[in-house]
Amino acid sequence: MSRAPSAMLPFLYPFLNSTVCTRPLALRAAQKSLRCRRLQSSVTRSQSPPDLSHLDPEPSDYSRFIFQDKCTVTLVAGSGGHGCVSFLREKYIEEGPPNGGDGGSGGSIYIQAVDGLSSLHKLARQGVIRAGRGKSGQGKSRGGKRGHDVLIQVPVGTVIREIGRFDPVEEGELKFRTWRASMSEEEAMEMTANQRDRFVLYPGSQPSDFLTTAFPSLGPPRRPHIAASEPAAPIHLDLSKNMAEPMLLTAGAVGGFGNPHFVSRANPRPRFATKGEGGMTLHLDFELKLLADVGLVGFPNAGKSTLLRSLTNSRTRIGNWEFTTLSPNIGTVVLDNGKGRPLVESSNKENPRTGFTIADIPGLVEDAHLDRGLGLGFLRHIERAGILGFVVDLSSGNPIETLQKLWHELGEYDKMRDTQPDAPDSDRRVKWSPSGFEPTPMLVHDASKPQNSLPPIALPPIYRKPWFVIATKADLPGTQENFVALREYLAQVQQGAVEHPSGNKDAFRGRLAAVPVSAIKAEGVKGIPNLIMSFLEHH
Ligand SMILES: Nc1nc2c(ncn2[C@@H]2O[C@H](COP(=O)(O)OP(=O)(O)OP(=O)(O)O)[C@@H](O)[C@H]2O)c(=O)[nH]1
Ligand SMILES: [Mg+2]
């Protein structure tokens, strides 16, 4: 592992003020220079004197960040408990009145998008999520206990789409309607055979009692009142904001009636009660649309993971070889003074930002848009970041070319996405047939792809995202000229004197800053949160 030379970075300091805090910011930066200096992640803040050993760790010193951006989960709402068949038993009362309690209702499933989560892996591991079943009613008119509710918490930026559902109440309603449509009113009153499966009998009854008991006519299956606040089918939710309160996804089913409900003059001691309704099953697809506020884009070994470590509490893996990082790592920059007071004044007074997230995305390679290297999956992660931070290694080659090559990949991906919206999911297998043999046409089915997979979520094009450049490894010798050239190039792009590196005329041309840093020494990184905040607040 290459240890950086211990020389300080004399050339860095003049640049820091002129580049990070460019014109509109310069005044503000001067006024807030004190605050600017204090602004740093919770990690660096708590270290005095600074211990930088975590920025150049042993390859084995890392914590695993389990990342999952997509999963399919089955949700089963709780079914209702059965009603109870019971009669009052007391001394001197031989044949007491019915006193069976109603069944408890099933548990509901709620969803809430919360800040602070960044992956769907916990949800993905569950596979099937069941709310509690309502308990059956009991004697002495005691109702059954409710089933427990389930709250699913997902990261902000999760999109939920329905793949399929099975609703026993809807099935029951349909069955009931077709059954009623086929007979007259009187017949319906008498004919109860079709509804026998909705009753429970007195515990000591024989199965044959089902045939001899005269059951009353029941209406269609019942729905709980809170089902009215379920989202409309098919479910499509875009949870892009932190939710203060959970939202109902599927309501638990109602419990059955106890036997006192069926008392009539003809049958004062009914020996039956009704079953609870069945809970709904939902198959939902969860996908993270927003990965993080900022995505670090760069070639392998550029120093993205080191930069993430220097900015946040992340313990992502670092190594002097390519493809050290294989899945995104997300770190959070906390912008408070440790006592809940903000260090950056947010222009949004009502809901000020207290921090933001940065994703270290695995390195891109040339032709990544053709799915080379670790390919399209990672371009999709880049597509999901709000702001792009291009990490360019000043010590290897021409940084302008590096930046142009990175943009070229992103630009090609944007173009490809526009022309073939479902290209990333298309079947890429080669269909080969031996010469002279004409194969019979058959449906090629990719077993790895779920049958009812949904189309990818539509995201805005990459070239419209705000971006800036982090020129890293500035502590290495001979990097100064490279940085000066890069800064001049960006100024020209901003003025429109040269073509935007994405090759797109409508691309983002706001303030284009280049920040020289030495991530390994945590030098120059303190201005980055301020710069990112200015982007987050104005775009
Ligand atoms: N001198 C110097 N070396 C650095 C700096 N930042 C990172 N490095 C070194 O560069 C090498 C690669 O760093 P990583 O952070 O793993 O690079 P990466 O971009 O995450 O690489 P991949 O995960 O493979 O894409 C490591 O040996 C780091 O110690 C820096 O600012 N100065
Ligand atoms: Mg890495």
Automatic annotation (TrEMBL):
<dbReference type="InterPro" id="IPR031167">
    <property type="entry name" value="G_OBG"/>
</dbReference>
<dbReference type="Pfam" id="PF01926">
    <property type="entry name" value="MMR_HSR1"/>
</dbReference>
<dbReference type="GO" id="GO:0042254">
    <property type="term" value="P:ribosome biogenesis"/>
</dbReference>
<dbReference type="InterPro" id="IPR036726">
    <property type="entry name" value="GTP1_OBG_dom_sf"/>
</dbReference>
<dbReference type="Pfam" id="PF01018">
    <property type="entry name" value="GTP1_OBG"/>
</dbReference>
<dbReference type="GO" id="GO:0005739">
    <property type="term" value="C:mitochondrion"/>
</dbReference>
<protein>
    <submittedName>
        <fullName>GTP-binding protein Obg</fullName>
    </submittedName>
</protein>
<keyword id="KW-0547">Nucleotide-binding</keyword>
<dbReference type="InterPro" id="IPR006073">
    <property type="entry name" value="GTP-bd"/>
</dbReference>
<dbReference type="InterPro" id="IPR027417">
    <property type="entry name" value="P-loop_NTPase"/>
</dbReference>
<keyword id="KW-0342">GTP-binding</keyword>
<dbReference type="GO" id="GO:0005525">
    <property type="term" value="F:GTP binding"/>
</dbReference>
<dbReference type="InterPro" id="IPR006169">
    <property type="entry name" value="GTP1_OBG_dom"/>
</dbReference>
<feature type="domain" description="Obg">
    <location>
        <begin position="65"/>
        <end position="291"/>
    </location>
</feature>
<comment type="similarity">
    <text>Belongs to the TRAFAC class OBG-HflX-like GTPase superfamily. OBG GTPase family.</text>
</comment>
<dbReference type="GO" id="GO:0003924">
    <property type="term" value="F:GTPase activity"/>
</dbReference>
<feature type="domain" description="OBG-type G">
    <location>
        <begin position="292"/>
        <end position="537"/>
    </location>
</feature>
<dbReference type="InterPro" id="IPR045086">
    <property type="entry name" value="OBG_GTPase"/>
</dbReference>
